[in-house]
Structures are given as C-alpha cells and as structure tokens.
C-alpha cells in the first residue's frame, strides 16, 4: 500500500469518526460542548463520547506518547498493544481522580502548578524512554550541555570520540546499526507508567468530567465511572490510532524487516527524546508564567482541543509532525542504503 494513500485513509477515518460523534450527539440530544443538567445514563454515555473526542483530536497528553510507542512497534498488532497499554494507565488514573472529584476534591489537581509539573514529569519520562531505545546514554545533542557536562553524565567515552559527535562526524546510533545491532524496543511497562502520569494533565475534557459529570453521580460507589468511561473512550481511539500507525509503517515495501524496525525505532526514539525536551521546557515555562496556559488561537470550532489552539496543540505539532517527519526522512535514507547494501551482499553470495 502506498504510504501517502495510507496516511490519507487514516485522516479520513478520523474525520468520519468526528462526524459520527456529531450525528450521535444530535440524535441523542447530548451536548458534547457544554453539558448541563445530566442524569446518570446521559452522564455515562457523555463520558465515553467525550473520551472518543479526546482520543481523536490533537492532544498533548495522548498523541505524542501513543505515536512514539505505536510507531516504535512497527506492526499493526504492536501499535494496538501500545495504544491499549498506554491508555490503560491513563484510564486507571482518570477513574481514581473521578472518584476524588465526586467528593469535590479535584480542584487541587486543576491548577497551573500541577499542569506545569505534569508537563515536566511527562517530558522526563519521554526523554528516558528515547534514550533507552538508543542505548547510547543521554544524547540530546545540545553542544553547550554536552561540552560542559558530557564527560561526567552524558558521554562516558574518550574525549576524541565525544568531539567527533559534537562536530557531527559520528553518530553512535547509526554506527550501531551499521555494525548489525538494532535499537531497543521500549518495555510495555514504560507506556503504562506514561499513561498514569499523563492522566494528571487537565484541559476542557478533565474539567467537564471532574466538575460536571462526576459530581452528578448518585453516590460515591458510582463516582469513578465517568473517569473510567472517559478513559475507555480515549482507549478506543488510541488503539485505532496505534494500529493505523503500526500498519502504515509495516507497509513500507522497499525496506527489509530489519529496515522497517530501524525506521520505526528511530522515529520513536527521536519523538520521545526531543518531544520530551519540549515538554520539560514548556512545563518549566508554565510554572514560571502560569498565564501561558490561557494563551491560544481561537478557531471558533465547537470541538474541545480544536476550539483554542494553545501550547498543547503546538507541542503536538512539534513532537509528532515536525520531529516525526524529519526523523522519518533521515531514518529512511539510512535504512534504504542499508537494505540495498544487504541485497547486493546477498546477491553476490549466491
């Protein structure tokens, strides 16, 4: 399948899902934008539908992370597994906070300090995962940091070797591939932990779940259900999203299986590493300047995550679109040359 066609199909699927949500909302009379006066049944249905919207729209707490783990798998099944495991942690966390919200205690989590701190922790975990894949120690490639701290914390290798990396004459990741080794796969437990941490992020969806839906439950025994169903709605879309990404990568026909593995894990490690860095920087800025979370571009679209394009939206664009695209191009060039060389070597051996 052609890669461009595959991406178009993925885009069409997401547009169709959003359209169907509007149809369901219109037929049932459920207000996905600003729900009020909800009963038990409508609150539970609304929670699940909001979760689907959350999973299908660009969200910094889900897309960069699911993208990284799903792409790193390089297969349809692996992509589905990545989406499932990440969103399982996310769902458990949202269910717990929903129960807390029933007792009107969720306000302590809906602050700019928690928002910024969540960004920082999510970013650090992303960095750790990206570095784990590369097996080469912390490799942020920021020259000032590497020159000052590299010999102690970053590059435990000779000064000559580090200077070559600083001057872009060697790359330990690509050299390991040339030598026949491969980038590591990310352990599933890291995706699960990431999901739990990401669940502390808040936005319009969390505010609706914690301040409207959870308090509407008849008693404390039902308090966790809005968060649980919201998480399950998000999980539904993350599994589909992960499967689509895994399928797309597995259809790169001009690469060998090893080449696909290299490309998928290269993209995954770069998005996690550099995306994690931008998360940390953004979190620190929010902690210093809380007003940043209210800055955005108003689109007029009555869909949460699309109505106001704020810092979270641009993190998604940077981490998934820009870093993902640049990493894909670089990895494809390297993997294609390695695959061609492997084929020539196999032919000459015959």
Describe the structure.
The protein has 350 residues and is mostly helical. It folds into two domains: 3-127 and 183-339, no CATH class; 136-182, no CATH class. It has 13 helices and two strands; from the N terminus they run H-H-H-H-H-H-H-H-H-H-H-H-E-E-H. The chain has helices at 3-28, 40-56, 63-73, 76-102, 112-134, 143-154, 159-166, 172-178, 188-198, 204-213, 225-250, 257-288, 311-349, and strands at residues 296-298, 308-310. It has a two-stranded antiparallel ribbon. Helix 2 (40-56) packs parallel to helix 11 and helix 3 (63-73) packs antiparallel against helix 4.
Shape: globular
What profile does the largest beta sheet have? 2 strands, antiparallel
The helical percent reads over 70%
Please trace the helix and strand order, writing H or E for each element: HHHHHHHHHHHHEEH
Radius of gyration: 22 Å
Q: How many individual helices?
A: 13
| Uncertain runs | 1-5, 136-142, 148-156, 171-181, 340-345
The total strand number stands at 2
Cross-sheet strand order for the largest sheet: 1-2
Give the CA-CA distance, first to last residue: 30 Å
Structural class: mainly alpha
Strand-residue fraction?
A: under 5%
What is the total domain count?
2
- What's the pLDDT, averaged over the residues? 78
